[in-house]
Amino acid sequence: MTGTRVPRRLTEPVPVPVPDPIPAPPPVPRPLPVPDPIPIPDPLPVPPPMPQPPPLAVPGPEAEPEAETPTATATATETETRSEATLSVVICCWTMDRWDDLRDAVGSVSPARQPGVRETVLVVDHNPALEERARAELTGADGFGDLHVVANAGPRGLSGGRNTGVELVHGDVVAFLDDDAAAQPGWAQALLAGYADPSVAGVGGAVHALWESGRPRWFPEEFDWVVGCSYRGLPEHPARVRNFIGANMSFRRSALLVAGGFRTDLGRVGSRPLGCEETELCLRLAAALPGSVLRTEPTAAVRHHVPPQRATWRYFRARCYAEGLSKAAVARFSGRGPALASERAYLRRTVPHGLLTALTGGRAGRAAALCLGVTTTVCGYAWGCTGGRPHLADRADEQGVREQGQTGGETA
User: Fold this and answer.
1) DSSP alpha helices (H): ranges in 98-249?
2) CA 202, CA 250: separation in Å to the nearest integer?
3) Which of 21-35, 82-96, 180-194 has the lowest mean pLDDT?
4) In angstroms, rounded to a whole number, what is the distance separating the alpha carbons of residues 229 and 216?
5) Which of 77, 160, 191, 247 is the most buried (most CB within 10 A)?
6) pLDDT of residue 167
7) For the chain, what is the radius of gyration of the CA atoms?
8) Are 348 and 355 in contact (CB under 8 A)?
9) What tens digit of pLDDT does each residue of 187-216 get?
10) What percent of the chain has pLDDT over 90?
């Protein structure tokens, strides 16, 4: 075969590329378990139709809505904070020499002058002649309201008299007023307004000194507590406080009963210038009622008569010493921390400021009184902590009796 070219036979085949293997598919997840069907509750029964209330009666022109009646489960505090809370006043007295002051005190809290006052209980401390005169001249007389004159059923002294009053009153709130103090207009309403807060267990007010012979030039305002009055350094606006001044204070009656009342082994007996039973009660009340509040309301004011016998260096020194003795007793009952908390702040701020003001103002006598007052009070406290006898306070008591016989006044 000519003219035809036969191609040369390939000796090796050309390799064919092999594709990569196809990856295996991921495993199929297992199906989730089918939950059990939720049971369907039986249909609720259809309640019967409510009866239609009777039509409301339309009151006449002079009809008044009925007052809300507290339920049986309402607490005493809830009841006392409502607008119908009432105030009972307890005044303790022991001497005939304050008769004019006593009449002013009782008259100043009559319902005609102090709306909200329900009753006044006058407790006479083991003085039958004074008790008889008070019943004859004050009970049922015009201007004294619903007045009850009773004898102190407890031990002789201010604490026993106050406890007697607490047992006899019926008001939601009990206010204590000294027999030589007079409530100012709006006093009762200002006290009661403080109890709108259910946590408030007590409300105290301001005590303004009424100096019969004028304030001595040397007598510092920082020591007006010596004559039972509000002193410089106390809050001038409503505020929470540790304790009140005894001449003008109030408490929920239920709180007083829980706390157990005033200690009869503390406080004033006759003209002996010991005290601090109010401080001890306030500390004990706060411990018995955690979360309770004691508040001061300066607009609930009284004026406190200060006779000339209290405006002397002798009384000033004796009263400061007695205050130290009393603070030592409170510290034994309540512990030094609570008993002296306010006093530490008073010594750190109030007294140094008063001393600086007196020195820069040329009041050497007032500066001397500040130093003497602090020193004497600290000495009384130190002596009281050792269990020493309150000899200086005893002498002040004897001096007060002599002055009372000479002038017809009173030192306590």
Assistant:
1) 99-108, 128-137, 158-168, 187-193
2) 6
3) 21-35
4) 15
5) 191
6) 97
7) 39
8) no
9) 999 999 999 999 999 999 999 999 999 999
10) 65
Task: State which H helix or E strand residue 257 sits in.
Answer: helix 253-259
Paired tokens of 17: 């590329």
SS (H, E, C) 380-400: HHHHHHCCCCCHHHHHHHHHH
Start-to-end CA distance of the chain, whole Å, equals 162
Residue range 223-250, pLDDT digits in tens: 999 999 999 999 999 999 999 999 999 9
Q: How many CA atoms lie within 13 A of 149 on its CB side?
A: 23
β-strand pairing of 181-183 with 293-306: antiparallel
Q: Which residues contact 389 (CB under 8 A, 6 or more apart)?
A: none
Query: What kind and span of H or E run contains 377?
Result: helix 364-385
Angle at 104 (CA atoms; ends 102, 107), nearest 5 degrees: 110
Region at 169 (left for phi over 0; alpha for psi -120 to 50; beta for the rest): beta
Whole-model pTM?
0.76
Query: How far is the C-alpha of 64 from the C-alpha of 373, rounded, in Å?
Result: 59
pLDDT band at 337 (very low <50, low <70, confident <90, very high): confident
Sign for the CA dihedral angle at 391, 99, 279, 340 comes to negative
Distance CA 67, CA 83 (A): 11
| Helix intervals (H) in 93-239 | 99-108, 128-137, 158-168, 187-193
C-alpha to C-alpha distance for 195 and 200, rounded to whole angstroms: 6
* Residues 302 and 177 sit within 8 Å (Cβ to Cβ): yes
The torsion angle over the Cα atoms of residues 278, 283, 287 and 288, rounded to 10 degrees, is 0
Separation between Cα atoms, residue 305 and residue 313, nearest integer Å: 18
Residue 395 has pLDDT above 70, yes or no: no
pLDDT at 340: 84
- Amino acid letter for position 20: D
What amino acid is encoded at 189 in this protein? Answer: Q
Q: How many CB atoms lie within 10 A of CB 385?
A: 16
Sign of the Cα pseudo-torsion (293, 237, 166, 117, in order): negative
Cα gap 380→397, rounded to integer Å: 16
